[in-house]
Amino acid sequence: MPVTAFEVPERYKYQNGFGSYFETEAVPDALPIGQNSPQKPAHGLYAEKLSGTAFTAPRHENQQSWLYRILPSCAHPPFASTSDGPFKAENPTDPAKLEYIPNQLRWDPFDHDNQSDFVSGMHLVAGAGDPTLKQGIGIFIYAAGKSMDPHSAFYSADGDLLVVPQEGTLDIRTELGWLLVRPMEICVIPRGIKYQVHLPSGPARGYALELYQGHFTLPELGPIGSNCLANARDFQAPVACFSEDYGATASEGPNSYTITVKFNNSLFQTKQPHTPFDVVAWHGNYYPYKYDLGRFNTIGSISFDHPDPSIFTVLSALSDHPGTAITDFVIFPPRWLVSENTFRPPWYHRNTMSEFMGLIAGEYDAKKGGQGGFMPGGASLHNVMSGHGPDAKSFEGASNAELKPVLVGKGSCAFMFESCLMVGVTEWGLKMCRKVQPGYNDESWGSVQVHWKRPEGASADGHLLK
Fold it and tell me: Between vectors from CA 413 to CA 397 and to CA 313, what angle results, nearest 5°?
């Protein structure tokens, strides 16, 4: 069934497509016809351009939207640095204190946090690069027990945020409209777009990756053809929705809204007397979107050997080197394995890329689950050239399994953030979270058996001149 059966029903309308140019208006005739910035926009609105790329970026890369709103975004008092939130320098998630180590790491499921909202419940686990140079990534765990204040909004100037819910539904209000994002869905909130996260089904936990450079795109399909993997028509963008809460001018109003911005991994705040969610209409190709992972059209071998995991890529953020990604978002959904005379799980591997894995639900076929294993809500990190692969039990099982067609991963979905960058780990990720499994290496590979038997009469000195 190529659509996930969600426990929480959908509540919003969407526009379908990836990288499409959309237009939407919540009030008739709010969008101008044939131009972007008329002398007097309809209904007394202000026209505001939101640029996600440089003006002169190539046409196929250029991302921008025009917003028609009640008051412009610049109408607020100055921002001031705040000690609230998870990004201050003295915090154990300080990105300036990343520790780069070659050890394989695995974390038990991260704790829930009933006292925090989506923003204050974010913890930087690992990352690389520098948002001031628009280079690199940040990898987060979030745990939230309450909705954000309805008179608040958050945005990041550092990058695009890819959110992967593991438990709990996120009801996300953005400037451009609403997204309902449930486990087995993902969403991307681009740099600069304000949003507010509500928790309609209770506490929420999940993973997130912030992309400091460029934007996500769909991977090239090459000889696969024009369809499969994540199809463009299955991505969903919001329709316009707005609130009316303002005074006679931008400095007057009946309520106060706290606007928080993440800027170079520090938080700044201001308060304004009008809602930031006042976009009556918009058009463009720079917008938040979501995707149901159940719609991913999985490709695999129907003859022999396990293909590279890149065949499971949903989204990719490209570097300036063709075929090498700053990050790929890869999933391991339910799929049929039919290859003959083949070790079917992922093989043992050392990789020039870093691999951060999480588990949304179920059990991953190359790692045992249960206490001390790879569990939903937990994670693993195999850094550049750190060896990894099936644990001893999974290897023995797959090596001796009857090779008949088998459906693996039913009710399960693992994912991977793969990056060409060497990834550092924060103090929170290594120590403060208290979730690192100290026996990961030994429990996974310490009992790997030696099956080697030298063939009778075989020499081991073939490299010598005689």
Answer: 105
3-class secondary-structure state, position 432: helix
User: Residues 25, 151, 306, 396: which is the catalytic one?
Assistant: 306
Tens digit of each residue's pLDDT (9 = 90 or more) over 309-361: 999 999 999 999 999 999 999 999 999 999 999 999 889 999 999 999 999 99
Ramachandran angles phi, psi of 158, nearest 5°: -85, -30
Cα three-residue angle 368-373-376, rounded to 5 degrees = 95
- Furthest C-alpha separation in the chain: 95
Residue-level pLDDT at 50: 98
Distance (Å, rounded) from C-alpha 290 to C-alpha 234?
9
Tell me if 48 sits within 8 A of 67, measured CB to CB.
yes
Query: In the sheet that 135-144 helps form, which strands lie side by side, from edge to edge?
Result: 14-16, 235-238, 289-292, 185-189, 160-167, 204-211, 135-144, 122-130, 424-425
Q: Among candidates 36, 14, 70, which has minimal Cα distance to 279?
A: 70
Q: DSSP letter at 275?
A: -
pLDDT at 378: 97
Catalytic annotation present for 306: yes
Place of tokens 């707005």: 242
How far, in Å, CA of 59 to CA of 166, rounded? 36
| 151 assigned to active site | no
Q: Which pLDDT score, from 0 to 100, does residue 89 have? A: 47
Q: In angstroms, rounded to a whole number, what is the distance separating the alpha carbons of residues 318 and 314? A: 13
pLDDT in the model for residue 167: 98
> Which residue matches tokens 């780069």?
100
Of 76, 215, 274, 388, which residue is the catalytic one?
Answer: 388
- Residue 134, Cα to own-chain centre: how many angstroms? 17
> Of the candidates 368, 366, 436, 372, which has an alpha carbon nearest to the alpha carbon of residue 126?
436
The pLDDT score that the predictor gives to residue 373 is 86
Q: Which two tokens stand for residue 59?
A: 């046409």
Low-confidence ranges of the chain (pLDDT < 70): 1-2, 84-96
Whether 382 is catalytic: yes
Q: Vertex 189, ends 187 and 190: CA angle to 5°? A: 140
Residue 88, pLDDT score: 55
Does the annotation mark 451 as catalytic?
A: no
Could you give the 3-state DSSP secondary structure of residue 170?
Answer: strand
CA angle, residues 412, 184, 389, in degrees to nearest 5? 40
Which listed residue (25, 349, 396, 443) is catalytic?
349
Half-sphere exposure of 333 (CA within 13 A, CB side): 24
Strands 122-130, 424-425: pairing kind:
antiparallel
Q: Which of 76, 112, 274, 382 is catalytic?
A: 382
Q: What is the pLDDT of residues 129-180, one digit of tens each?
A: 999 999 999 999 999 999 999 999 999 999 999 999 999 999 999 999 999 9
